[in-house]
Amino acid sequence: MAMQLDSCFGSFFLCIFCFAWFLTFPAEAAMRKYQFDIGVKNVSRLCHAKPIVTVNGRFPGPTIYAREGDRVLVKLTNYAKYNISIHWHGLKQFRNGWADGPAYITQCPIKTGHSYTYDFNVTGQRGTLWWHAHILWLRATVYGAIVIMPKEGTMFPFPKPHRETEIILGEWWNSDVETLVNRANKMGLPPPTSDAHTINGKPGSLFPCSLKHTFSMEVEAGKTYLLRIINAALNDELFFTIAGHNMTVVEIDAVYTKPFTTRVILIAPGQTTNVLIKADQPPSRYFMAARPFMDAPVPVDNKTVTAILHYKDIPKTVIPSMPKLPAPNNTNVALSYNKRLKSLNTPQFPAKVPLKVDRHLFYTIGLGANPCSSCQNGTKLTASLNNITFVMPKVGLLQAHYFNIKGVFKTDFPDQPPVPFNYTGAPLTANLGTSLGTRLSKVAFNSTVELVLQDTNLLTVESHPFHLHGFNFFVVGSGIGNFNPSKDPAKFNLVDPPERNTVGVPTGGWTAIRFRADNPGVWFMHCHLELHTMWGLKMAFVVENGKSPEESIIPPPMDLPPC
């Protein structure tokens, strides 16, 4: 039986209805079918109207509902002028990279007038994830939530909420995003920052022409609610808070955490966070608010987006209370929040941290500049890992690997940077050139990997949220300054570190992750700041097949888009 649900963002009551209907859906109906029509729709925000790319005419797009163990089929038909692909962010896609979605990594994009069915199983995962376009900057408007309920009869490891809703944080540009990006690339410079942030596609009443473009969530006094918060912004880490109310963090990136209470969360692009809130304040109207965190000399859209927590029966004429957000450069709040994140690590939900490491990797993150005769300053800004700026291929890397197509990529991505230096010392503004290449790292099946991601002061230090496709990983350590391989591993948390798919590397610091390479295929790893991804801050792992068919990549689907 097919199930199609529209996005819940237009109305909280619609969300309640959709969710209640899902909960009563027959347990034996283990196949969920969706139709995604990619098209263009005129949308008005901030007194500006423009055509945007959407799914099913919705902004944000429809929520995918599933239950752990389900099979999901999403038939995507492209009616827009751009080629398109969709990434199901955080779904592991075991042996099934064909459904992962990043253009020219696991598939060629779906051309105008063509269709492709993403066919995947939801195995061993439950919680909040999300989906988004994974080509050009189209994810500025092409994105939505994925809600995975636990298996039938399995309870949340926290008190059952009265109701729940999705809170998707995004960005809005008044001008056409692709036009801005193309113009900036020709000059070798970054495009302008966004004109507003959004909550469920709406910038909130602090912006002009936005009284009707403010998301509102009704609550009843004394009830507890689950917020599924997603950062779909392209380039900004965000602080999020609710006036007068505590939040209890219970999940990150679809992995349960040890619960803790906080007044503010930090959420990087690509990350999800589930929080419980109790409507325990005097009945009134309260602003939810988000604003960027940036503790480096880098321009951001520093305006505040708002939505409203509205107690039932309170008149809409009541002016909402405004929360106090941390200063945009408050590093201490950011670091202390991330230190509180720990895996639940119970017998039912264990933290299977690799204790023995087969492969040690150390990747430096750098900005740079390469010669460009047609650019404004004679150079083009770029980014690199281990001084390699990734060059996108013309053929999907997974196809090239599976069919053994020669000349598409090399598997010589280095395990260490070419030249050690004082990575986080004084800013380095000379010798900023990088090498270019489509270079991948080959990893043996089921081997354990430790990767240290080290920020550098090439041009400037900056926080970088890194996303690894095809896997969750454990964030075993993090610190400010240069990673010390002889001292820092002794401080690693190997008992209950946070498990996630996207992690922030702190400004002028490092982060260490561990994972088991038990998913054969070609898996993208990149900074989830769209600007840096565009500049080449990305690479991919080729995880080899195991010894049996059950440990090998499945054959490609018949309708895989041609290159």
UniProtKB/TrEMBL annotation:
Protein name: Laccase
Cofactor notes: Binds 4 Cu cations per monomer.
Signal peptide: 1-29
Keywords: Apoplast, Copper, Glycoprotein, Lignin degradation, Metal-binding, Oxidoreductase, Repeat, Secreted, Signal
EC code(s) of this entry: 1.10.3.2
Reported cofactor(s): Cu cation
Organism, scientific name: Gossypium anomalum
Catalytic activity: 4 hydroquinone + O2 = 4 benzosemiquinone + 2 H2O
GO CC annotation: apoplast
One annotated GO molecular function: hydroquinone:oxygen oxidoreductase activity
Cell location: Secreted, Extracellular space, Apoplast
InterPro entries reported in the protein's UniProt record: Cu-oxidase-like_N, Cu-oxidase_2nd, Cu-oxidase_C, Cu-oxidase_fam, Cu_oxidase_CS, Cu_oxidase_Cu_BS, Cupredoxin, CuRO_1_LCC
EC main group: oxidoreductase
Plastocyanin-like domain: residues covered: 40-152, 165-312, 412-546
Family according to the record: Belongs to the multicopper oxidase family.
GO BP: lignin catabolic process
Keyword Signal part of the UniProt annotation: yes
Biological role: Lignin degradation and detoxification of lignin-derived products.
